[in-house]
Specification:
Strands 1-2 form a two-stranded antiparallel ribbon. The chain has a domain at 19-62. It has helices spanning 14-17, 51-56, 58-62; strands at 38-42, 45-49. It has 70 residues and is of the alpha+beta class. Strand 1 and strand 2 (45-49) form a beta hairpin. The protein contains 3 helices and 2 strands. It is globular.
């Protein structure tokens, strides 16, 4: 069996390993790619924000302010 570079044959399913967590409040996503969450790339790192945090900070997100600001 061959694995991809950086991959591992051990530990949980792929969905569990790639399940996002809200960068603001720490809420885990229900699945690997939550359709209602916001994804932001800040300083080269991808961050996810849950529905509630996204709604609370919509104006800052639309203004493209880094999450550290809000």
């Amino acid at each position: 069996m061959t694995s991809l570079p950086g991959g591992s044959d051990q530990g949980g399913s792929t969905a569990e390993r790639h399940r996002p967590v809200c960068a603001r409040c720490g809420t885990p996503a229900d699945g690997p790619q939550p359709a209602t969450w916001t994804c932001s790339v800040e300083n080269g790192a991808r961050q996810y924000f849950c529905d509630a945090c996204s709604r609370e900070n919509l104006r800052a997100i639309e203004g493209r302010l880094d999450s550290a600001w809000w």
